[in-house]
Amino acid sequence: MKLYDSIGPNPRVVRMAMAEKGVTLPTETIDIMAGVNRSGDYIKKVPAGSTPALELDDGRIISEITVIAEYLEEIHPTPAIIGTTAEERAETRKWVRIIDMGYCETMANGFRATQGRPMFEPRFPIMSESGGDELKALAAKKLLWLDGLMKGEFVCGDRFTLADILLFCFIEFGAQVGQPLPDGLTWLPAWHKRVAARPSAAA
């Protein structure tokens, strides 16, 4: 297998998942700033032009970060980052979807329409700049909402999961692009420190 990697929060999610599982793979870095992901051989392999992507030994391509993580979990089930029982897996997948749809996509689209506009506007349709500002505000509200629900050490209580990895990588990216953690949080700052202290956070 080979991992097609790049800068950005999405590839970091997969790298961090791999680090948690102790999985190492040959890697090719795709220069998304230069648009390599949207041209040549790469766009033929990954029609959406997204990174990362996992190329299997038979040439098949797996893309989308949660799908790649699920695949890695199936072929390397221990240590589990999704779950060891149907109930655990359902809980993790629930929070992954809530975090992905409610925060990650909202925050990322807000970035693309504002600070990231020079890079993304020529490549695909994006929101207006004013709409991007609204999305960033909605992303901050989603973090406040999530913060109020969390009680345990991690998103899924005492289990460190893909939900934590996803949330951590996108919060860290947000802080780099003008979307820091909003004021008024109680759980997220301490959670962030716990996750940042894990060796996988360096991935």
Q: Explain this structure to me?
A:
With 203 residues, the protein is of the alpha+beta class. The protein has 2 domains: 2-75, Glutaredoxin (3-Layer(aba) Sandwich), CATH 3.40.30; 86-202, Glutathione S-transferase Yfyf (Class Pi), Chain A, domain 2 (Up-down Bundle). The chain is 53% helix and 6% strand. It has 8 helices and 4 strands. It has helices at 9-21, 40-45, 65-75, 86-113, 117-120, 129-149, 162-176, 188-196, and strands at residues 2-5, 27-29, 53-55, 61-63. It has a 4-stranded mixed β-sheet. The two termini are 18 Å apart.
Percentage of residues in DSSP E strands: 5-15%
Overall shape: globular
Largest sheet: 4 strands, mixed
Tell how many strands the DSSP assignment holds: 4
Could you tell me the CATH topology label of the largest domain.
Glutathione S-transferase Yfyf (Class Pi), Chain A, domain 2
How many discrete domains?
2
Arithmetic mean pLDDT: 96
Topology at a glance:
Layout lengths: L1 E4 L3 H13 L5 E3 L10 H6 L7 E3 L5 E3 L1 H11 L10 H28 L3 H4 L8 H21 L12 H15 L11 H9 L7
Parallel strand pairs: 1-2
Antiparallel strand pairs: 1-3, 3-4
Helix pairs in contact: 1-3, 1-7, 4-6, 4-7
Supply database-style keywords.
single chain; 203 residues; alpha+beta; Glutaredoxin; Glutathione S-transferase Yfyf (Class Pi), Chain A, domain 2; 2 domains; four-stranded mixed beta sheet; 4 strands; globular
Q: Summed up, what is this model?
A:
This protein is α+β, with helices and mostly antiparallel strands and 203 residues long. It contains eight helices and four strands.
